[in-house]
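Lesson 9: reading folded outputs for more than one chain in a single document. The general rule is that every protein is listed as its sequence immediately followed by its structure tokens, and records are never interleaved. Here is the first one.
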Amino acid sequence: MASIALVVLLCQIASPARAQWGQPISGDLSAAIRVDEVDSSARALLERVKAHVAEKQWDEAVETLREVMERQRSKLIRLDDSRYIPIREYCQMRLAELPPAGRALYRSRVDPLARRWYEEGIAERDTALLRRVVDQLFLSSWTDKALLALGEIALEEGDYPQARWCWERISPELRTPDGRPLWLNLRAASEMRVALEPAAQAKGVIPSPAQWLAYPDTQLNLADIRARLVLASILEGSLARARIELDDLNRRHPSARGKIGGHEGPYAELLAGMLITAEQRPAPIAPTDWPTFGGSFERTMSAAPDPGLRTAWNPPLDVPLNGGGPFRTDISIIRDTFGLPETRPAEDQRSEVGLLCFHPIVVGNLVLFNSIDKIYAFDLPTGKPAWPLPPGTKDRDPGEIYSGLTGRENLGVRNDSGNQFHTLGVPRFTMTVAGRRLYARLGSPITERQLTSGLSTGNSYLVCLDLAAEGRLVWRIPQTQAEDDRWAFEGSPVCDGNNIYVAMRYNDVQPQEHVACYDAQTGMIRWRRLVCAAESPARGQADAITNNLLTLAHDTLYLNTNLGAVAAISTADGQIRWLSTYPRAKRPSGASDRGDNFYRDLNPCIYYRGSLLVAPTDSADSETILSLDSSTGQLLWASNVPRDVVHLLGVGGGNLLASGQRLWWLNVDGGKVVHRWPDQTTEHGYGRGALVGDEVFFPTRTEIHVFRQALGRSAADTAGGSDPTRVEVREPIQLATRNLPLSGGNLVVAGGYLLIATPTKLIALGPHAAPVHPNEHEVTQER
């Protein structure tokens, strides 16, 4: 297909001088992970509680637990081998385990305050007051009612996982004893044709030791709660889950009646009708913008279906950026010091073409991307600069709307070998747009320095530009606003309208991972929270570049630290809601593992309907992909079958789509590998693909292959007699043609266009006819 509209030279940036490297590194990464844990005095008090309970001294036990909650507040405590939770939640678990006499004593002291908060919250529809009941006084007599009300409000606001989580905590019977979603066990029991044991041996009894916090003795009707859980699944679109939950409701409460979804009658009949309606409902209209990495802050989005890509835009526009070539890395460091493969999955760092560092975004008619210290904006339909240069402007590239530094020496890198980085990790350029404001991380990409060269990371900073005012600078946050020059911003922020949130690294012997919150309007800091500290894969032996991005779902941030932990953080105050660890990796040196997982250097969590999908860089099983419960951090499944995955593209058709050398389909509910393409790696992936409608686009160097997201025989397949095992739905989009030899790369589909970000160009394929241009044969080719 001879289709090209816009070609932009993307990267010509200076690089750091080569350091003196030590001997090859081998052995395991340290399993030690430091978090903000409770101190020894709190642990002593908790031991004292056990003694009080054994002696049936309920007054002393209750007051000691309240003292620990008050003293330690935001500290964490280890719950089991892999999870940490806030000390307040842990103490509430211990209160929930008290016998009725102990709980009654506690309630006599907190119920008056809980009742006032609850009644004011209901009267004023104030979710903050209702959450205060749940967070601070979970064992009060009013908490189950507050949970019911919070779930109703969340359902009305379309936050179905939050509604479900509120309702599930009303009783320990609504999840498994270890805190896993009950429907997964129900499905497994159905598949094995065995009866499922009740979640608790007796109503209102939490298994000991508790693995999650549930209200122990509600008097609310559980048939009503289970009906609401089915409704949440239907409205969310989780129809397989809804069927299982509806079967369970009918088995437990066959005659239950009530009001649900605005109708009153038998729950079984009403919900079955809603389920049929939902199955016939057309798919929602996909958005046309692509405002951040992954398309959304949940990091999974299917773009609107492509327009066919029949014709071309205008001929290429050259943008003369500064520098001498595309990004590359020093292969000798990768090979000799770290024992990693010399070729990155879905890239080729040996090639003179360079690495795939750029991830453009699209908002309205604007296509935007950035380099280390510049931001560019072009008109999507025409490929021309979005706005004319101001009169008298000098030394500015076409399309450039922001330049942050006047001298490359301020980047914290040195130019002695073109753009070849002597680092573990490479720059990855992402940005975010929210409400016509653009947020970007610019400056030095270095986030860790080798210990022999000092701990200063150089200059990194955040900027906010007003796209309604042609990219006018609103504010800039330098890293030096933090206390010293060891801080580095790691990637572009996420935004909830009022605030932006960004991952930060503090460079130390054990690098520290933090999350910071800034006011979106002014750039003033609101809070910053330590997540964890651990030995990094660079181990202080080399400079390192990390690119951790946050995931945002409603009022919770999720962070894959790539330091042995995944965490959920409250947007309100930075409180860590849970932190889950995983076994850390062996170094590939001297081992049989290829070490492809160490190239997962842009790997935020994917949030999908209450589950979290993570592909850590440093997991012990190098191919591991994890699924965690987003409410508790509990492991749902782990898959170590895919051996080359570096990109989690998103969830569609019931599958997690992941790619590297191959494209992989994994069932999102169980982690089973459904399919992979190709079976033999005769044709390698090249770049990050994209979900488009109900399809997935998978780029190679010369073609873009298009597959179904959902596998299996469809009604159309059956009618047409097509092969149900064929997942490729059309002929590949040919990129290497006679007149326009193009290349694969990182894909974005938005506004009716397919953008391909190669190491040196931004290529756009679109629906509009291109005029014949006399210089068309001069299109810049890949080197």
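And here is the second record, again sequence then tokens.
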Amino acid sequence: MAASPFSGLDLLATSVILVDEDLRVVHANSAAEDLFAFSLKNIAGQPLAQLFADSGSFIASLEAVLEHNWSYTGRDLILTRPGHPSLQLNCLVTPIEDAAARLLVEFRPIDQQLRAAREQRQMDQQRANRELIRNLAHEIRNPLGGLRGSAQLLERELERPELREYTQVIIKEADRLQALMDRLLTPHKLPQIAPLNIHEVLERVISLVLAEFPDGIRVHRDYDASLPDIHGDKEQLIQAMLNIVRNAAQALNGKGEIEICTRAARQVTLAKQRYKLALELHVTDNGPGIPEELREQIFYPLVSGRDGGSGLGLTLSQTFVQHHHGTIECESEPGRTCFTIMLPLE
């Protein structure tokens, strides 16, 4: 069977519909099928006006484009497929010279644009955070070595053994800070990529969390066993997921429920790149939720809603997920907090 002359449009992340001079559908790419919940086989040849309710002004704009052969940009359009929720869209209509099609109509959901802008801000913030952390860590590590060494020398000179308790405090705190600096610098190591089963990663994480919280935490698994292997760094993904699941267990104070769900997502845009298949992973707990004033900052370093927390766990998780070209987001309200991780499966 010959490939469609418009099959290259399926590689685009934006939704595209081609129509002829009678405004009948000639082609719709995969992104448009997902956006409007239709199949090209079912709509090919249909008038575009029949696909959407109350689309008179939009169709009139397309007719004007055909008449004058000019481009048209529509903003804040509301298009509704019968039986489906309304969509708020921006669109760009471009005349084309093709034997089968006359107009290329490109749709961009406004919520997707907002999400893309939010992802870009997160990436920019993450880069700034990493540079800041690396500079701070290097500046702190050097005096730490001198501080620890001086405490050891002082301990040897003390005549009263009971005073060594104080030098031990200095040494142990210096070691703790050194370990913290090592953790801050860890994300700069490149991942070691290999095929792996995400469910093996999750089972390892669950075993570690249940060992740490043996009483009161119940973990519910909702796995899609048909998921293919992903390519990633096993240790980084274990650490990323462990930080998230442990964070949920700590928010529950060791008593509550955590659900881990895996699914396949199709035609997904991650970090401005389109993937036909991606892993969608949810970690949900029924705890008190993240304080509203912290929800926009939880991935920032040294920000923690828990007493005694370092504020590094979620920062490291975000860094490791981004190393794998994925995204991580959080939605929280009292009684439900859900972290969503998207990773490409290609």
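What the second record shows: The chain has a mean pLDDT of 82.
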